Amino acid sequence: MHLIPMTSLQIRNTLKNPVFEGIFIRPLNIVITAVVAVLFITATSGCMQRPIKPQAGDIARSVPSHSGERYYYYALSRFFKNKGQLADAIDLMNKVGELDPDSAFIQRELALLHLNNKDAQAALKIIEAALGRHPEDIALLNIYGRLS
């Protein structure tokens, strides 16, 4: 078989031939349709969405009430503390304290957040209230000793 050089006009005329139309055009239409379908599916499934940066107020309002809620708020509070957003971390830890008021651990964490935020008076108030409920807690006593 010899290859004969063809001009672009000859190639176009050859491709217009009904025999070649089925060979080239149909697969091209199938490929284009498949690509469009994949793009549509990924766009509507959330794969192409940009990640959302959490905001304390928005997230705190959107969580349904269930038994794991306090763990969620605690983890989110730790996230904001690590990001340096202490005011948001304190707000969320207060929410955890409302959900679990008998937890000495949560009261310690809240007091430590206030200390990180340079609010020793608020931390002392929280520690004193927690010691009223948990006078045997060594960690609370340790923090109380450092504050007083």
Describe the structure in your own words.
There is one protein chain. The protein has helices at residues 8-15, 18-45, 56-62, 69-82, 86-99, 104-116, 120-133, 138-147. By secondary structure, it is mainly α.
Distance between termini?
Answer: 98 Å
The CATH topology assignment of the largest domain is: Serine Threonine Protein Phosphatase 5, Tetratricopeptide repeat
**What is the count of structural domains?**
2
Mean pLDDT level: 77
SSE succession: HHHHHHHH
> What's the total helix number?
8
Number of strands: 0
Structural Rg: 32 Å
Based on the model shown, name its key terms:
148 residues; Serine Threonine Protein Phosphatase 5, Tetratricopeptide repeat; rod-shaped; 0% strand; 2 domains; mainly alpha
List the helices and strands and how they pair.
Elements: H1 8-15, H2 18-45, H3 56-62, H4 69-82, H5 86-99, H6 104-116, H7 120-133, H8 138-147
Helix pairs in contact: 4-5, 5-6, 6-7, 7-8
Short description:
By secondary structure, the protein is an all-alpha fold. The protein is 73% helix and 0% strand. The model has no long low-confidence stretch (mean pLDDT 77).
